[in-house]
Amino acid sequence: MAASATALTGFAAPKPKFKSPNEKLDLGIIGCGGKGQADSQGLSGENIVALCDVDADSLAAAAKKWPNARCYRDYRVMIEKEKSIDAVTVSIPDHQHAPAAMLAIKAGKHVYCQKPLTHTVSEARALTLAARKYKVMTQMGNQGHSSDDIRKLCEMIWSGAIGPVREAHCWTNRPIWPQGRQRPSGQDPVPSHLDWNLWIGSSQMRPFVEKWPEETTEGGKKRGGGNVYHPFAWRGWWDFGCGALGDMACHVMDGANWALKLGAPTSVELVDSSPICTEMAPSWSILRYHFPARGENPPCTLTWYDGGKLPERPKEMEKENFGQSGTIFIGDKGKIMCDEYCDRPRLLPESSMADYKRPDPTIPRVPENNPYLDFARACKGGPAACSNFDVSGPFTEMVLLGNLALRIGKKIEWDSAKMRVKNCPEADQFIHAKYRKGWSV
């Protein structure tokens, strides 16, 4: 089932179907809990005809809401059998984003995929190229990209409000799940409602452990008792997630990526972090991306802070505090700050906004600032969704290079065209994913 139709001699790939604006899409939902709930609700104006989840409890809850939908535990089976569906949502752990999305794309299905788009850099490149080849409509679930505010931010910077920008600083309070630990020993019975083999999916098999053992840290604090993998706690594991950077950078860095037209960095360095573990992202890190000149934009750096670390407080911030996530842009003529989803872009000091006249809008707006309506419109013959894979694929590549530097533990020199680290061939193992038998991209 992992083989694509085009790999079979004499077999033509299915063409994507486009409904008219007056019709409803037939949708398959891959992942019904967590973000899957939000994604299915966001597209609830369409026909949800198939549901898939490895957790029977999450599947049952979704089936109660969508009683006419057919239910599956394995997305490969769903995509194989549900030939009539127009599109799928992919709202499962990061390591299975690319295998599920690629299978759907090759089957001619439009794809709405949660962020980060993929688990590895090479997967992001592969999905970008596949979406073009198979001419399907796509969207990554970084919802701030659909907002008026990110467009206002771009228009402020492009109008020269703070002059050329040479630095940007992005931060987040994540992780809010365990990171920086060693894998717990032992093995627990797999809950009857969870198909552990399918949850592991494309990654390498490991024993199921339900809860972290209680322990005392070096600081004398007690920790433990929380979920090790499922639900929600998978993000910190390199085998399944992309850490705090993967969870939040596709939101927080989005404004910098768009407004500064960043593209691929020439290098990324690990500035500092808590102790590095082999299998998990650290509990905090600071990373710095270096970008060359881009047209009229000068060379610049973007510094990322997670785990509660923050950039230096600008003297212009007046009385406001850092939010849980945000960005500060430092230009030759001033500074701009925005919040987690690039919302509330404002000059610093904020009091200067009283006399500031925003530039006229130049970027097309998304109806109701709604990424789901944007995606559905694209699947019905409208313009491509704003965070389609031609946009979000290269952006995800850039984001995930930070994890590459983090895992290697030193500055990496990046060759985007050849998709390799020039100074560190051992990084290849993290650029390209290895899949268990039965899964592929």
At the first level of CATH, the class of the largest domain is Alpha Beta
Whole-number tally of structural domains:
2
Strand neighbour order, sheet with most strands:
15-14-13-7-12-11-10-16-17
- What general outline do the C-alpha atoms trace? globular
The N- to C-terminal Cα distance equals 12 Å
Question: Could you walk me through the main structural features you see in this protein, from its secondary elements to its overall organization?
Answer:
The protein has 441 residues and is of the alpha/beta class. It has 2 domains: 5-144, NAD(P)-binding Rossmann-like Domain (Rossmann fold, 3-Layer(aba) Sandwich), CATH 3.40.50; 148-176 and 241-367 and 398-426, Dihydrodipicolinate Reductase, domain 2, CATH 3.30.360. Helices cover 26% and strands 18% of the residues. The protein is built from 12 helices and 17 strands. The strands form 3 sheets. Strands 15-14-13-7-12-11-10-16-17 form a 9-stranded mixed β-sheet. The protein has a 6-stranded parallel β-sheet with strand order 3-2-1-4-5-6, sandwiched between helices. Helix 4 (97-106) packs parallel to helix 5 and helix 5 (121-134) runs antiparallel to helix 11 (389-408).
Feature tags:
disordered N terminus; 26% helix; 2 domains; 17 strands; 441 residues; nine-stranded mixed beta sheet; six-stranded parallel beta sheet; Dihydrodipicolinate Reductase, domain 2
Give a brief description.
The protein has 441 residues and is α/β, with parallel strands linked by helices. The chain contains twelve helices and 17 strands.
